[in-house]
Amino acid sequence: MNPNLSIYDNLGGAEGVRSLVEAFYPRVQQNELLSPLFPEDIMPVMDKQYMFLSQFFGGPALFSEAFGHPMMRARHMKFPITDRHAEEWLGCMAGALIEIGVEDDLRDFVLQRLSGPAHHFVNTP
């Protein structure tokens, strides 16, 4: 991991973030706790996730340009999200990061960076 670069650049820019999203969503779809929260046609979700993560990781502000302020907690309030959902989501992300070959220190940093938002979405005991 190069500390002088953004997470976006450390992951390989647009191509790296796209690879991460493509490795992540099959895991989500196979997860019995998470899959019911997602539509059968996952492509629009993947596109939004790609745009959001690009922006969140320090790349271009694709999500805000397309949809305005992310307001991610508000966008997720219609879904019952527990601490277990957050942990399963992070587990899927960890597996995707391993699958695409992200080195340990960068993987740990990315998961730490995503942990706060993942738990911020929790809205159900």
Automatic annotation (TrEMBL):
It comes from the Bacteria. Keywords: Heme, Iron, Metal-binding, Transport. Heme binds at H119. Pfam families: Bac_globin (PF01152). The keyword Hydrolase does not apply. GO terms for molecular function: heme binding; metal ion binding; oxygen binding; oxygen carrier activity. Transmembrane segments: none annotated. Gene3D superfamilies: Globins. SUPFAM superfamilies: Globin-like. Belongs to the truncated hemoglobin family. Group II subfamily. This is Globin. It comes from Paenibacillus glucanolyticus.
